[in-house]
Amino acid sequence: MNVTHWYSDVFPFVHADWFPAFALVVPLLALAELVFRLGRRVVRRMAPRAPMMASVARAIEAPAHLLLYLLALGLAWQQRPEGLAWVSGVERLFSLLFIAVLTWLLARAVHGVARGVADANPLAVADNLAARRIQTQTQVLSRTVQGMVVLIGVSLMLMTFPAVRQIGTSLLASAGVVGIVAGFAARPVLGNLIAGLQIGLSQPIRIDDVVIVENEWGVIEEITGTYVVVRIWDQRRLVVPLQYWIEKPFQNWTRSTSELIGTVFLWVDYRMPLAPLREALQKACEASPHWDQRFALLQVTEAGDKAMQLRCLVTAASAPAAWDLRCHVRESLIDFIQREYPGYLPRHRAELDPAEPGEPGEPSAPGGPRPAAGGAAEMETAAAPRT
After folding, report:
1. Cβ atoms within 10 A of the Cβ of 207, count?
2. Could you give all domains of the chain from N- to C-terminal order, each with its CATH number?
């Protein structure tokens, strides 16, 4: 019996001309599944020696699986009978699916490469400056490339429709004003895209950088294709557009190194001896695990009319450590002054003229100040100076 006639007898609702196409579907799908499983096994065995390949393979696993199925169905579709009216619609649908899956595959591949680079350069190390630089470049560039891949994929999908091509051609040919308006409308998008490339290449900021932006202290937590997320110290999130970092000034405390010099200011009386205070500063720094042992310095930075200002300079390996060290030093020195030299806290000094004897309305207060040699009385009251 002829195989085609047998197929028509078993499946009378299917035309005999479709037999070659339907006969290839199951074997080709089985072959696609076999190729996928073998490829996944090979990649898993090579993962310890090639972590980048393993990262890319994990990222593209789902789209690659679907793409193999589409290729198998496409090969089977080549055996279809000719002359059917609805074949063109199915072919267009297949083309759209193929472009969409291929776009998904390429975008995921870029993401896998970025993830592999990030895994190879972890941030959880003591000196992570190089790792932060590499991760920032990789993250910004990968997201830019992913956006371009998606844009090209969507454009190719639209190009499969002849009507869309004709409308686009007519608009480009006759609507110059519309093009100008569209250019102004797309300026923020293009500006952020260019700013993202500038940040990725020049790196004014990096992942995990400590910055002062909009009078807020925070850490760069995420850099996307349009904005930067800054984690504020009190766990708030400040979202800043990419163009801000290119056009406006900001402070970057970890641009070249994470080491910082912290400052502590104190006001004390002029009679306060400085040598014991310097020893107390040294002991306070040695007792703190946040001091990096570079230096601890105490200087008189201002001599006011009521007290003198002392500035303590202490060093730490990072911004959080510098903050904790400053608080520790401030508390320790205040405690030292209160314990050892309580009389040398800042004081207000004033000279009061006593009332003339017999002057009405100016009685002598009992226990009042005694006149000084020059006819004036001197008073000292402990108080904080006005700054």
Report:
1. 23
2. 1-120 (no CATH), 129-248 (no CATH), 260-344 (3.30.70.100)
